[in-house]
Amino acid sequence: MDTVAALHRPVLAWYSASARSLPWRAGDASAWAVMVSEFMLQQTPVKRVLPVYEEWLRRWPTPEALAKEPAGEAVRAWGRLGYPRRALRLHAAATAITEQHAGEVPRDHAQLLALPGVGEYTAAAVASFAFRQRHAVLDTNVRRVFARAVTGQEYPANATTAAERRTAATLLPDDPETAATWAVAVMELGALVCTARTPDCVRCPIAGGCAWRQAGSPPWEGPARRGQSYEGTDRQVRGKLLAVLRDAPGPVTQAQLDAVWADGVQRARALDGLVTDGLVEPVAAGVYRLPG
DNA sequence: GAGTCGTGGGA
DNA sequence: TTCCCAAGACT
């Protein structure tokens, strides 16, 4: 289909001219560096990732370096990025890479997918960005660009569909190197131009062929996207509890934890969840620490 | 498949 | 100010 190939040139040209200079995109960025960035970028804005990423790569330049440290150090160094289980999983992935892959991030997509914390998106992203392989990379940005440009809807559905995978596969350039650049280019287009709230169609290289624009930019009529209530949830309590652990040099007491949330029932439930997840370790009666 | 899991900044 | 949501994974 010429209509397919016709999308490639303008998007690739736009990316060449407009891409952000990000450390994990530098020519000397290792596969490990790419993997660290992908874990951190899951549901987290680039701006907040940057300083933590730099610190992590300086401190742990290889999977082996991270694997040598207690998981709690990874959790502490995660700082306030959010979803701290990612730190635990990244540490576990580093351990698996060290023990099962001779310290080298695997190039094989299936082996990547088998690592802790690596799902469909991250496996494709690492294989594509770090190893320049041909994979469809479907993140929230890409899904939104395709929903608009191809399907003519303002937003994609909540969960990735088979139709989206077909679309992504169809649009993927044949040449692996070109496919890898295409993947990051579409993602960048979604992040900078085809944004969720107020797309900047004036600067969009494919606005002329965008199905959503051609349809008059109709508003989203699908099911309401689920909101993320936060205030008063267990997640908020977990965050407060873990912040106490992160900010303390060593083990903390029950009293220190009790001080951050009034509801004892909810507080106990949240703490129990953190212990179950392996983010917190009981050391003695009423004493807790980050995992050793 | 729907719920859970943090955090903070921009519109 | 309030609300939306930002390169998902896992159960």
Automatic annotation (TrEMBL):
It comes from the Bacteria. Residues 40-192 form the HhH-GPD domain. GO terms for molecular function: 4 iron, 4 sulfur cluster binding; 8-oxo-7,8-dihydroguanine DNA N-glycosylase activity; adenine/guanine mispair binding; metal ion binding; oxidized purine DNA binding; purine-specific mismatch base pair DNA N-glycosylase activity. Keywords: 4Fe-4S, DNA damage, DNA repair, Glycosidase, Hydrolase, Iron, Iron-sulfur, Metal-binding. It catalyses: Hydrolyzes free adenine bases from 7,8-dihydro-8-oxoguanine:adenine mismatched double-stranded DNA, leaving an apurinic site. This is Adenine DNA glycosylase. It comes from Streptacidiphilus pinicola. Its cofactor is [4Fe-4S] cluster. Belongs to the Nth/MutY family. Its EC number is 3.2.2.31. One of its GO terms (biological process) is mismatch repair.
